[in-house]
Amino acid sequence: MKLLILSGPNLNLLGTREPEIYGSETLEDVERFLREAASSQGIELDFFQSNSEGALIDALHAARKDCAGVVFNPGAYTHTSIALRDAISAIQIPVVEVHLSNVHAREEFRKRSYLAPVCIGTISGFGTTSYRLGVDALLDYLKRRH
Ligand code: DQA
Q1: Residue 133: left if φ>0, alpha if ψ -120 to 50, beta else—which one?
Q2: Identified catalytic residue from 22, 77, 114, 131
Q3: Which of 3, 42, 96, 104 has its CA 20 to 30 A from that of 111?
Q4: pTM for this prediction
Q5: What's the structural domain count of the chain?
Q6: pLDDT tens digit string along 119-130?
């Protein structure tokens, strides 16, 4: 079984970007620890990060062909993108929305997610652990469904 771990704008700067909010681990660190956990469970992971909305939409479309589900940190597109919401609705595979920070404890504009209603659930506020929790939640969902 293969899952896509998708990250949106500015997450390539993780580790140096506002470390007081997002921590000091990099996206490469996230990839390393998720791969370690997944290999012991026989799960394959694809990783993709882009700062472009269109590239993220293309990655979601491609995932529908060979991935069982997606763990997605959409970054600021969470709060703006109807196009990404429509892509998630279109692909008909489960998507978990994840955030490193607790978006509900920050600015008002971060409390609104255009994507959450079409995701199976949202994890927010656990730093890089949010990605791991997202993978666990997605695997649990897929197991129950089959
Ligand atoms: C984020 C939260 C978003 O509001 C922000 O725009 C990001 C990162 C997070 O992981 O906490 O870029 O998705």
Answers
A1: alpha
A2: 22
A3: 3
A4: 0.97
A5: 1
A6: 999 999 999 999
